Amino acid sequence: MPQLNPNPWFLIMLTSWSIYSLIIQPKLLSLTHINHPLNKPYMTSKPTPWTWPWT
């Protein structure tokens, strides 16, 4: 069964993870976010009761 032989795929996995960790990830982390979250207090609104026409 060729799936159990890790010899050709282990090097591919290590190469892809090293490329991701060393090249792609720093480029993605250096991007700046346009909309920063604001520290607004969370305000709850009081719901108004539903008035049923048949009561």
- Uncertain parts: none
Q: What is the share of helical residues? A: 40-55%
Q: Distance between termini?
A: 73 Å
Structural class: mainly alpha
Mean pLDDT: 79
Largest sheet, strands/sense/barrel: none
What is the count of β-strands?
Answer: 0
Based on Cα principal axes, name the global outline.
elongated
Please trace the helix and strand order, writing H or E for each element: H
Q: C-alpha Rg, in Å?
A: 27 Å
Briefly, what is this?
Helix content is 42%, strand content 0%. The chain is mostly helical and 55 residues long.
What does this entry look like structurally?
This protein is an all-alpha fold. The chain has one helix spanning 7-29. It has one helix and no strands. It is elongated and about 75 Å long. The termini are far apart. The mean pLDDT is 79.
Question: Can you lay out the helices and strands and say which pair or pack?
Answer:
Layout: H1 7-29
Features:
mainly alpha; 1 helix
